[in-house]
């Protein structure tokens, strides 16, 4: 048996000083060995193995300060020393290693770095560690398998975790990897990241709402840094959605294949990504097919159940039009929602919470035919039209563009009967007319014709310099700020609710444990009746036969003698099967306690002495048991007879019911019986009349 050596803090500090002063291969290898021991002790999978094979290790770390010192140095200072040893400049990546020994040291270091990240479950600790990982990734490129393993873990961490700080740290590592990767291989990384995003946006709730938006922003930023690869990836994934839409266009009842969160979130991602690109660049050329695809998905089904989904798509189109300054005919899609006949029907009054359009694609059944839902839908439709018109409220042709829509709002106001709808339409029309008057006043002094496109484009820049916001822009900003405020409040409320549920869950768990203890005591009382009877019986027998058997003094003396014998006995540790340290042997007091608890299931000496008395009592008990069995058999036979009589009576009732039904149904089956019934009825009616 070889005892393990404990690594002290002073020893670690001496090794770190040597590595910092002279970063040679020998000193680095010595430090890497200690770092590997730290990581192996932290692995959850090998905890049991470490306890069992503790003596087989050469070194162990027991002090937490030693562990912190080694890990901190490995993350903060050691990567820079490696760069100095490998003669790498800032921003330069490692392509190959000339020295065989240094290659082994580097592999061991990077492998344990990856293991350490995979085995840390505390989010705060993981956030701290990932702060130093971007520079460490510069050494991973020669090791393809380890590199792909680490990249896969970072992408999974970025896609599955809802902690935004942790997502940000993982994204910084991914962006550093993409920056240093060759353009031919970046495409694979982008596809892996997109696949992880697509897989984790199947459902959207207030708990994951911020996470989805954050992932969209992250992927957009990656596309901006690699525009060449972005075009091919965007084209391929938009084509997949187009093929899905085409295949299900002719089928009925397959809305869920198109109307789901994965398709909607993919369109949101590409809407934000493509709208940030100028139209003359490669990725910007996908703008037109993207708009056509969004409109096609919107018109895939006219069902009123998917109004929330249509609102999501209209918001995407408004965002594209605002960022790219492109005209997109969105008002037609809004009119399709406002023309619904549901706004002209009376709805049931409800006190439910407002419907959440931000996290819904379909109307819930509990909200159907409620005034809460359709009031929100009507207001949301008018808000979207105000946001759309605000985009073009500075254009020279804005009055002509709004003319038909103002006429439509007048007709809509006359058709609806509810005062709330009329007031909302009136407020919107007032704001639109104010913006129209502003544009008309600005274009009075214009000397060029509408065909002069260059002058038309400069109209807003030249004439609206002194105007901070048009009336429609003010209304749009108000609507957007209120919507964002509601979303933030709902997210905070969800977080508070989850926090309270966690506390309540702990309290309930503690309460359940107490209840289990109490119920366990009660069940123990019920389940130990036989044991109590046996103990009482033993005590009675002991009182009759031998009163000295349960004398406390004699019992105490016998225990003391046994303990003395145990102390005098010597154990031969060399010949025992146990190979560990003698101090690590099991505690014999615990074994005695276990044996004492099992005394109820064993016979004592008093039981053997009084065996004859028990046999005599046992014969009397057997006779009583035979009488009880005879009574039970007689009771079962009488019970079977009662059941047969009940079944017979039930069968007779059934037959009588079927006979009555047949009599009553003679004239309801058609044919001759029905004709005879009608003729008899006519004859009787004629006789009465005469």
Automatic annotation (TrEMBL):
Listed Acidic residues bias regions:
499-526, 541-551, 558-630
Q: Which Pfam families match?
A: Noc2
What segments bear the compositional bias annotation Basic and acidic residues?
Answer: 631-643
The biological processes this protein is annotated with in GO are:
ribosomal large subunit biogenesis
So which residues are the signal peptide here?
none
Q: Does the keyword Lipid metabolism apply?
A: no
Annotated region Disordered: the residues are: 491-690
Main localization, broad class: nucleus
Specify the domain of life of the species encoding this protein.
Eukaryota
Its Gene Ontology cellular component terms are: Noc1p-Noc2p complex; Noc2p-Noc3p complex; nucleolus; nucleoplasm
Positions with biased composition (Basic residues): 651-666, 678-690
Q: What keywords tag this UniProt record?
A: Nucleus
Among InterPro entries, the record links this protein to: Noc2
Subcellular location field: Nucleus
For this UniProt entry, which segments traverse the membrane? none
Task: Name the PANTHER family for this protein.
Answer: NUCLEOLAR COMPLEX 2 AND RAD4-RELATED (PTHR12687), NUCLEOLAR COMPLEX PROTEIN 2 HOMOLOG (PTHR12687:SF4)
The family assignment reads:
Belongs to the NOC2 family.
- Name the UniProt record assigns to this protein: Noc2p family protein
Lineage summary: Eukaryota, Sar, Alveolata, Ciliophora, Intramacronucleata
């Amino acid at each position: 048996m070889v005892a393990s050596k404990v690594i002290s803090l002073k020893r670690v500090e001496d090794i770190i000083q040597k590595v910092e002063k002279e970063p040679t291969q020998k000193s680095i290898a010595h430090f890497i060995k200690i770092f590997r021991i730290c990581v192996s002790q932290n692995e959850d999978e090998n905890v049991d193995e470490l306890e069992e094979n503790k003596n087989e290790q050469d070194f162990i770390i027991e002090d937490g300060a030693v562990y912190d010192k080694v890990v901190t140095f490995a993350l903060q200072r050691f990567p820079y020393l490696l760069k100095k040893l490998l003669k790498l400049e800032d921003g330069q990546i490692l392509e190959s290693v000339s020295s065989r020994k240094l290659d082994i040291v580097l592999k061991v270091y990077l492998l344990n770095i990856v293991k350490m990240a995979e085995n840390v479950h505390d989010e705060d600790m993981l956030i701290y560690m990932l702060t130093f990982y971007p520079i460490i990734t510069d050494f991973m490129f020669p090791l393809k398998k380890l590199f792909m393993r680490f990249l896969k873990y970072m992408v999974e961490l970025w896609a599955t975790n809802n902690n935004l700080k942790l997502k940000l740290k993982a994204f910084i590592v991914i962006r550093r990897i993409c920056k240093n990767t060759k353009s031919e291989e970046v495409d694979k990384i982008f596809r892996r990241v997109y696949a992880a995003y697509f897989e984790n946006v199947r459902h959207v709730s207030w708990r994951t709402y911020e996470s989805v938006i954050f992932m969209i922003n992250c992927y957009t930023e990656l596309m901006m840094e690699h525009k060449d690869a972005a075009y091919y990836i965007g084209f391929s994934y938009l084509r997949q959605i187009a093929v899905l839409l085409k295949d299900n266009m002719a089928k009925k009842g397959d809305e869920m294949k198109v109307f789901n969160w994965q398709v909607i979130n993919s369109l949101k991602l590409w809407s934000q990504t493509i709208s940030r690109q100028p139209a003359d660049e490669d990725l910007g050329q996908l703008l037109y097919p993207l708009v056509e695809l969004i409109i096609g998905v919107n018109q895939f089904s006219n069902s009123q159940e998917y109004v929330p989904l249509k609102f999501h798509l209209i918001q995407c189109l408004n965002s594209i039009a605002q960022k790219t300054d492109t005209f997109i005919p969105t008002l037609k899609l809004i009119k399709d929602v406002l023309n619904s006949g549901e706004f002209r029907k009376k709805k049931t009054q409800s006190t439910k919470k407002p419907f959440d359009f931000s996290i819904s694609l379909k109307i819930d059944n509990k909200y159907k035919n409620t005034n809460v839902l359709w009031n929100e839908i009507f207001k949301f439709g008018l808000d979207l039209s105000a946001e759309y018109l605000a985009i073009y409220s500075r254009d020279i042709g804005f009055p002509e563009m709004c003319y038909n829509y103002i006429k439509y709002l007048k007709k809509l106001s006359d058709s609806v009967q509810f005062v709330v709808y009329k007031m909302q339409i009136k407020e919107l029309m007032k704001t639109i007319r104010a913006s129209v008057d502003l544009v008309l006043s600005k274009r009075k002094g214009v000397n060029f014709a509408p065909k002069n496109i260059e002058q038309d484009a400069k109209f807003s820049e030249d004439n609206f310099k002194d105007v901070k916001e048009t009336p429609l822009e003010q209304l749009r900003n108000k609507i957007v700020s209120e919507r964002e405020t509601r979303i933030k409040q709902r997210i905070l409320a969800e977080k508070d609710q989850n926090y309270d549920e966690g506390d309540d869950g702990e309290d309930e768990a503690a309460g359940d444990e107490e209840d289990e203890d109490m119920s366990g005591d009660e069940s123990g009382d019920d389940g130990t009746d036989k044991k109590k009877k046996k103990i009482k019986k033993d005590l009675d027998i002991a009182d009759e036969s031998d009163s000295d058997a349960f004398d406390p003094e004699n019992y105490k003396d016998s225990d003391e003698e046994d303990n003395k014998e145990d102390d005098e006995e010597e154990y031969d540790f060399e010949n025992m099967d146990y190979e560990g340290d003698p101090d690590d042997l099991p505690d014999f007091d615990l074994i005695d306690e276990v044996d004492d608890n099992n005394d109820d299931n064993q016979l004592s000496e008093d039981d053997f002495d009084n065996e004859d008395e028990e046999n005599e009592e046992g014969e009397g008990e057997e006779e009583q048991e035979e009488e009880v069995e005879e009574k039970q058999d007689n009771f079962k036979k009488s019970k079977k007879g009662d059941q047969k009589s009940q079944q017979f009576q039930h069968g007779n009732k059934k037959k009588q019911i079927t006979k009555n039904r047949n009599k009553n149904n003679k004239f309801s089956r058609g044919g001759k019986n029905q004709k005879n019934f009608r003729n008899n009825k006519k004859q009787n009616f004629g006789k009465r009349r005469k």
